[in-house]
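Following the same procedure, sequence and fold were stored together, as reproduced here:

>
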Amino acid sequence: MIPMEIIATIRSDFPTKFGIPRQSGLVEELRATVVFEPEYRNPDALRGLEDFSHLWLIWQFSEAVRDKWSPTVRPPRLGGNTRMGVFATRSPFRPNPIGLSCVRLEGIRREPELGHVLEVSGADLMDGTPILDIKPYIPYADCRPEASGGFTGSGGGATLAVDFPPELLERVPADKRAALTGVLSRDPRPPYQHDPERVYGLDFAGVNIRFTVDGDTLTVRAVERMADKQNRTNR
């Protein structure tokens, strides 16, 4: 066994897995904060990092840790019905549940109680995800324009038109609206679900969004503060 240390956790607007973009960078408006564990809050460890525009986050699929693994998985991109080799996918269900995300470094700031934290955009991580390492993105080595994408194709997938009534959009914090609209446009549903009557629920940035999808249009039906939803549930 190789010992691994959790060096940080991420604070994002996703309290659950549902709705998180399937790859990093698809929704650039998403903001998150990397908070280091106390023993790694040494500013010297970040010296020179501000000169890089993007970072690699290496992290643990903490909600997908299992005792066993399977050599094949069912990628959502293929509708959940076709099996592919686990090493030909980015599935969380792998021998070592490790994820890799490329994010933009928006800034480094010092918090009185947390030390230096990293502000990043485009992250595809659930709130509280453990981070195992951080490396700079190096364009001349990491960018391969000629690379083929296998069964994933060349793009990030089709996007939906989002019908978000203004009176409902106003219930979302102003600084989160663009990110939420971007998340919804990426179609949060499992690829194999296409019932236009089904109402889905997405928790994001302290609100619960209820929506339906008919064809290429996603329509927001309701927006409720999570605190109000929890209070109603506890009655």
Notes: The two ends are 48 Å apart (CA to CA). The longest strand covers residues 98-111. The first helix runs from residue 139 to 142. The mean pLDDT is 91.
